[in-house]
Amino acid sequence: MEIELEIVLGIILVLNILFAIIIVFVERKNPTAALAWLMVLFFLPPIGFLLYLIFGQNYTRQKMFAVKEKDDRILRAIFEEQHRDLVDRTYRFSNPDAEPYRDTIFALLQSNRAFLTEYNQVDLYTDGREMFDALFAAIRGARHHIHLEYFIINNDDLGRAIVGALAEKAREGVEVRLLFDALGTRAGGGSKEAFHELTDAGGKIGVFFPSIYRLNYRNHRKIAIIDGTVGFIGGFNIGDEYLGIGAMGYWRDTAIRIAGAAVYLLQLRFFLDWHFATEEELEATGQYFPEIEGLGATPVQIVSGGPDTRWNPIKEGYLKLINSARESVYIQTPYFIPDDSVSDALRLSALSGVDVRVMVPCKPDHPFVYWATLSFIGDLLDSGVRAYTYDNGFIHAKTIVIDGKAGSVGSANWDVRSFRLNFEANAVFYDSSVGSEMKRRFEQDLTVCTEITAERYRARSRRVRFKESISRLFSPLG
After folding, report:
1. Using CA atoms, how far apart are residues 329 and 470, in angstroms rounded to an integer?
2. 29, 68, 147, 222: which one is catalytic?
3. How far apart are CA 226 and CA 230, in angstroms?
4. Is residue 254 within 8 Å of 160, Cβ to Cβ?
5. What is the pLDDT of residues 231-252, one digit of tens each?
6. Neighbours of 454 (CB within 10 A)
7. What is the three-class DSSP state of 416?
8. Which stretches of 243-392 are DSSP H helices?
9. Among 160, 207, 292, 370, which residue has the least CB neighbours within 10 Å?
């Protein structure tokens, strides 16, 4: 028995050494993440290699997502003219609110081919019932196609209602495509079997990255496109909890409805993700990209991030927005685990006299992430950053608004998983009408928040300090 145990331990040791070599010499991880993984492998040898198999390995991602990178090249030609005009500084914005953010727009175009669309009409939703009422209305009004892409589609009342509405449109002859992440949706009871009503009616489903044992490389995007003219993007998944039904209580999230040319970019994003998941290549015809008469005034860029991108465009967009602030930076996020670049940007902005505020939940849905979030919040308080816990349920919004004039709404949290490991999509806008409304709602939320002052944070118990320290130790893993 002892000999068998020694053999097992020897095999584990060899595997840990092999993974350590891969981390250092093959994957070339961020040094902080690499050191964290080396500690896990050698200080927790019985389970370290299992954790690494589930959470850590990245060395196959270039091969796994090569088709996505190849597909993304089709976007380049579309953006060349705008790129050239921005370089020459001859581009004239239809909305003057965009002019102060010319450098941000150019940077996102350069790094992510995030074409700037203008004349968009943007409607903001912060309540699940209002948002899903708008989504159901758009689905019922569809005439040619409905494309939905969500991380989670739960097999509950709301999920079944969405599937039922899609099936009804499919029976009417509308093209329906539903793309979901295998891991995210399975966690809520969703599966291929849960969508039989839709597939029996002629609708199609796609499963993103069916390998559910891997927690990395998940499709965390939440987008919907109806008839190529109306789109939705934000933080809401599809499930009862997003209506405030469940243990977390009221669900405070943010999404926007877009009518305008930015819908083309949501459609392109869906085309690429659908092709990757199903190998069905959709043809970019006028039915999917109809002529749209711009009825609004909001310039919008759709920025995508994930392991198939060379840089971290969503994080870099956040950084550019923070650095452009002159009056205020308001952030809402359920998970706040910034790297040094983001922490430094927020700290320097606050030290420069900008009103920097971060709002996070008062309760955890993922305990380790929650305690790590509080530890990183604590680091910023002495620089003048103000932080709050949202006490009226759970806040899941992933937003930033700058000076009440520009900002971002989407699926990307302020953490390493969203910046490097998951596929995300955000809408970045440059319009004081949308920005001022987002700022107003943030300030309204402050009435149901508790401020985390430096004095309160320093007075936390030893038990809380211990939880923060352990959670923070594992936060760079990825």
Report:
1. 29
2. 222
3. 5
4. no
5. 999 999 999 999 999 899 999 9
6. 16
7. helix
8. 262-278, 313-324, 340-351, 367-380
9. 160
Helix axes 313-324, 102-112, angle to 10 degrees: 170
**Dihedral sign for Cα atoms in the order 435, 438, 440, 443:** negative
In the annotation, is 71 catalytic?
no
Q: Of the listed 68, 398, 405, 439, which one is catalytic?
A: 398
Contact 393, 247 (CB under 8 A): no
Higher pLDDT, 294 or 286: 286
Active site residue 63: no
Per the residue annotation, which of 403, 415, 431, 445 is the catalytic one? Answer: 403
Residues across the chain: 478
Q: Is 380 exposed, middle or buried (0-12, 13-18, 19+ CB in 10 A)?
A: buried
Between residues 356 and 106, which one has the greater pLDDT?
A: 356
Catalytic residue among 29, 220, 315, 439, which?
220
Annotated active-site residue 222? The verdict is: yes
CA dist., res. 186 & res. 63, Å (int):
25
Is 83 noted as a catalytic residue in this protein? no
Tokens at 210, concatenated: 């069916």
d(CA 322, CA 385): 13
d(CA 468, CA 115): 40
Which residue in the block uniquely carries the two structure tokens 């009435």? 447
Query: Quick one: which of 136, 225, 221, 129 has its CA closest to 184?
Result: 221
Q: Which of 72, 127, 227, 308 is catalytic?
A: 227
220 is catalytic: yes
Round to whole Å and give the CA distance between 286 and 228: 9
What is the token pair recorded at 84?
């050239």
pTM, whole model, 2 decimals?
Answer: 0.85
Catalytic residue among 396, 405, 439, 467: 396
Q: 450: which strand partners?
A: 389
The string over 61-77, giving b where at least 16 C-beta atoms fall within 10 Å of a residue's C-beta and e elsewhere, is beebbeebeebbeebee
